[in-house]
Write a structure and sequence with these properties.
Length: 138
């Protein structure tokens, strides 16, 4: 457990090292942006998504290599409730909800021939981060 606390000092936002699921809410860096009352009434979620901490064992790093994550790595993810469904509130154009990836800093090591290999190091891995509305004018 002491080692988890040491690792946590270097982990990026949305990464928690814990033997059990974190019970804290992840706060995204843009959650503190001030939005005027007038603009707030115009902002609506057009694609449903679910967000929570997920126990992750493997990932894809910034150079497209498959990596094994350190044990008990929890990553905050957001996923589309229904990929490719029409976006809510979008009319007169074609729309579809699309899963988008983002980067998270994780403690990981290479996977070679299906097995973890080498020492752990801090690497950026691709994770599900949001569900966005894609619009096409056909």
């Amino acid at each position: 457990m002491l080692y988890y606390r040491e690792l946590q000092k270097f982990a990026g936002p949305g990464i928690v090292f814990s033997a059990s699921k974190p019970n804290t809410t992840h706060i995204a860096s843009d959650d503190n942006i001030k939005i005027s009352r007038r603009s707030r009434s115009l902002l609506r979620d057009s694609c449903k998504e679910s967000s929570d901490y997920e126990l992750v064992t493997t990932g894809i790093n910034e150079i497209s290599q498959r990596v094994a994550l350190y044990e008990n790595t929890w990553i905050y993810t957001s996923r589309c409730a229904s990929v490719n469904s029409s976006c809510k509130g979008v009319i007169r154009v074609q729309s579809a909800c699309k899963q988008k990836k983002g980067w998270a800093k994780a403690y990981a090591r290479k996977i070679i021939n299906g097995r973890p290999h080498g020492s752990y190091s801090w690497q950026w891995i691709s994770v599900d981060r949001s569900c966005n509305c894609a619009i096409s004018f056909n």
